[in-house]
Amino acid sequence: MSQTxxxxxxxxxxxxxxxxxxxxxxxxIIAAIGPNLSVIGEPIDGxxxxxxxxxxxxxxxxxxxxxxxxxxxxxxxLWLGVLYQCPPLTPEQxxxxxxxTAAETLLSGGTTLVDxxxxxxxxxxxxxxxxxxxxxxxxxxxxxxxxxxxHPMAVGLPTGQASGQLATTRQTQAVLELMETAVxxxxxxxxxxxxxxxxxxxxxxSEALFEGCVELSQRYDLCLHTHLLETRAQQMLxxxxxxxxxxxxxxxxxxxxxxxxxxxxxWLDDSDIDLLAMTxxxxxxxxxxxxxxxxxxxxxxxxxxxxxxxTFGCDGSASNDGQDLLEAIKLGTxxxxxTDFEYRNWLSLPTAASMASLGGAKGLGLQEEIGxxxxxxxxxxxxxxxxxWSMLPASDPLGLLLLGRPVNLIDRLWVGGRPxxxxxxxxxxxxxxxxxxxLQGRSEWVTAPPALNQALEEQYRAVMGLGAxxxxxxxxx
Amino acid sequence: MSQTxxxxxxxxxxxxxxxxxxxxxxxxIIAAIGPNLSVIGEPIDGxxxxxxxxxxxxxxxxxxxxxxxxxxxxxxxLWLGVLYQCPPLTPEQxxxxxxxTAAETLLSGGTTLVDxxxxxxxxxxxxxxxxxxxxxxxxxxxxxxxxxxxHPMAVGLPTGQASGQLATTRQTQAVLELMETAVxxxxxxxxxxxxxxxxxxxxxxSEALFEGCVELSQRYDLCLHTHLLETRAQQMLxxxxxxxxxxxxxxxxxxxxxxxxxxxxxWLDDSDIDLLAMTxxxxxxxxxxxxxxxxxxxxxxxxxxxxxxxTFGCDGSASNDGQDLLEAIKLGTxxxxxTDFEYRNWLSLPTAASMASLGGAKGLGLQEEIGxxxxxxxxxxxxxxxxxWSMLPASDPLGLLLLGRPVNLIDRLWVGGRPxxxxxxxxxxxxxxxxxxxLQGRSEWVTAPPALNQALEEQYRAVMGLGAxxxxxxxxx
Lengths: 477, 477
What we know:
Two copies of one chain form a homodimer.
Chain A: E1 5-14, E2 17-26, E3 29-34, E4 42-45, E5 49-53, E6 55-60, H1 76-83, H2 91-107, E7 110-117, H3 124-138, E8 141-148, H4 169-186, E9 193-195, E10 198-199, H5 207-220, E11 224-228, H6 232-242, H7 246-252, E12 260-264, H8 270-279, E13 282-285, H9 287-292, H10 300-306, E14 309-312, H11 325-334, H12 349-363, E15 381-385, H13 397-403, E16 410-415, E17 418-422, E18 425-426, H14 431-441, H15 454-463
Parallel strand pairs in A: 1-4, 6-7, 7-8, 8-9, 8-10, 11-12, 12-13, 13-14
Antiparallel strand pairs in A: 1-2, 2-3, 5-15, 15-16, 16-17, 17-18
Helix pairs in contact in A: 2-3, 2-14, 3-4, 4-5, 7-8
C-alpha cells in the first residue's frame, strides 16, 4: 500500500536540536518513531534529509494568482479599489488558480492551505466547487473559507458618520443559505476538505451575518475565518461604527473562539491582545502582504508573550506576489526582531517551525490530527534534501531552511500518507501542463490593471488625514 | 566576436512603462538602442524577454558563505562575538566562497558586487588574491573592499568611558601599507576589478586609519566603503567617543564623498540625513540583515526625500542567509511602506530597479560606465525570461520580478559584453563542480557554531539597559 512506508535514518527535530530516527507510517497515520524500527511498506532512505510536519498556508485568496505582479504598491483600501475592478473569474480560471496556489504551497513545504476564496458573483457555488475539485485532485489538505459579505464596498471606509447603506435581512439570509449549501456539498473532513464560513471582515459584514456564521459553525462543527484589523483605517472604522475596538466587537458577538482564525491582526492594542488570548483565537500573520500594502508590522512578539496562537500565511498573490510559504515564514520569523531590543524574546527557529505547523493546525482545530511528528497523527510530512545547492554548506538545517533562500529542495511530501511530491516533482499534477493551461486560460486584463478610482482615493486621503495634494507627486521617482 | 551581438525585439523600460527595442552591443559597449536596427555580431531573439541593466550587490562579505544558516538570531554585537570565534578560512576556502557569492549574485540579476572582504589574519594578501582570482574567473564586476581595523573588538561597544585600548601608530601604518599593496596588485578597472579601502566602521578604527584610507583613495582614485550606524549601540558609541553623531564625525575627518558607500545607515537622525545628502555619499541598504540581526529599519524614504543616493546589498551570508539579490531588492522596496501613510512617497518599481542598478553604480563612482541601458555604457546586461513559471501569469514584468518570487529565470547575462550566463546556466563556472568542491572544502565547524561569549553578553546587556535577567528566558519557546 502506498500509504504505508518506513522512513529510515532521517533527521528530525528534538528537544536538544536534532536526532536521527526511523518513522513508520501505516495507512496514512504515523505509527512509530524511534531508532532501528522494522520496515513496513516501502522503505525510504532518509539519510541526509530533514523530516518536518507540513506547514500551513493559513491565509490566501487563490483567485488572486491571476493578479500576481499586477497592482502597483498601494495601501489596502486603494489596492482593493483596483482589485475589485478586475473582471470576475470563470469557474475554469478559479480551478486553475486553486491548482496553482496549491502547487506553490506544496513546493514550499505546505501540506494544508486556507483559501479565503473570492466568489464570482452569480456563480458562487460553482466557484467553491471548482476550488474544491482542484484541491482534491492535487491532494493538498484544504480549508475553503468562502469570502462573504453583505455590505457594499463603500461602507468599508470610515466616513465620520456611523451609518451607511447596510444589508437587508433578505440579503444576509441569502448569503448564509449559500454558505450552508457549500458546507453540505463540500465539507468532507475525511477527505481533507473543510468549509469554514469566511466573512470578509467587520468592515463589510453585518452583525447578523457574523451571528449566522457562528450559528452555522456550531451546527456543523466548522472553523471560522475572517480578516481582522489589517489597517489603521479599519481600526478607526471599528471605533466609529461600534464605539469599541474591532476585537471587542467580534468578541461581544461571539465570533472569537478556539476554532476562529483571524488574518493580519496588525492594529491591536495591548488590551485587544489580552482579550484575544482569552478567546483562544488564532492570528494568521501575513508579513509580505502587510509590507507590500504598507499595512504595518503586526505586534507578533506581544502576541506570543500574551499566549495568542500565531501562524503564517502568504495572503493572496495580488498582495504578495507569490505563494512561497517558506518566504512568508522567513520574513515572519525576522520582521519583529527590530521591535524589541530584548533579543531573548525573538522567535527561535524551532518556535517558528512549530508556529508554521502546529500553530496552523490549531487555527483549524486540527491540532490532534496534524501539525507535529506525533504517533497517531496523520502523515502530513515533508522531506527536505539537505544536500541541495540552496542548503549549502549544510550547516544548521533549520537555519538554512527558515532563514536562507531554499528553492525546490523537497524530495518527498505526503498528505495523510498520500504521496504528493516525489523526486522534487509533483506527482498529482503535471506542472508543465498546468503552465500551458495557465497561459491559455488567462484573460487580457492580467497585463493591464484597472485604473485607481479617483473618488475612492479622495475619500481615503481625507479619512487618513493626507493632504489633498496634487496628484503630481504620485509618479515621483 | 562574442562581445558583439544584437538583441532583437526585447522589452526594455521606458518613461511610459515598457517598449520593444533592438539593442546593439559592439565589443562590450552598448552601441545603439532603437527599433529595427541592423544586426551586428550574433543575433539574439529577445521576444518574451525583459532586458535590464545589471543590479549591484553593493555590500556583502563573501567568506560568510561558510556560516550560512549557522548563527541563531542574535543582535549584531552578540552575533559578531560568535562569528569572530569561527576559525579563519584558508585561501582556498576564501576563493570558493567568493565564487559561490558571485554565482548566487549573478543568478539573481547582479552583475557587480562589493565584497567587504574579511581577511584571514596573517594571510591578508593571500585572501585578497584568492577573492580577486575567483571574481576574474567567474567574470563578475567586483569591488573588493578589504575589511580593515586597528582597534581590538572590545573597543566596539559603548562602555560609559571614552577611552579604550587604541591602536598604535605602527599598527595603523601596517594596515595601510597592506591596503596599498592590495591596490597596487589588484586594482584593475579595465578588467572590472576594483579595490576600495574598507575600514570596518568607526567603532573599530582609529582616526588615523580613516585618514590614511582617504589619502589612498585620493592618490589612486579609489572608492571608499565602510559600515555606518548599523545599530543603536553604535549610535551611542559615536556620541560617547566623539561627542557628535557618527555621520558628523566621518564628515569632519573627510571620509564622506561621492565615491564613498556606507553599509546600513539605520540609526541616523534628520540632521545626519541632510549632512549625508550634502556629501554625495551612498547608503547601501541591507534589509534582510537588518531584520535578522534586529538592527532596525533604515529610514529609506527619508533618504530618498533628502536626495541621498541609496542602493541595495545582501550583506554577508551569516546575517541573511543567502545572496539572492532580487530578494534583497524586494524587501528593500516594500519594508518602508508601513513607515509612511503617504503612499505617494513609497518606492515605485521603476525607482527600485534604478536604485539597484544606477544607484549601485553611483556608489562606486561608475555611473558613467554602468548602471543603465545607455548608449556608450558597458554592456552589463541581464535578460529575464518572462515565460518562466515564476513569472506567470506574465502580468507586469517589473511587478513579478521585484515583488514576486522569481527563481532562476535569467536567460542570459553579460558583464562588459562577456557572456556569463546562457540558457540559465553559468558559462564560466560549472555549478555542479563548484557544489562538490564546496562540500569537500568545508570545515567541521560549519555544522556547530561557537558558543555565545558570556562576558560579552553581560557587557552588551548592561550597555543596552537590558535586565541582568537569568539566562533562563533565552531558549524559551
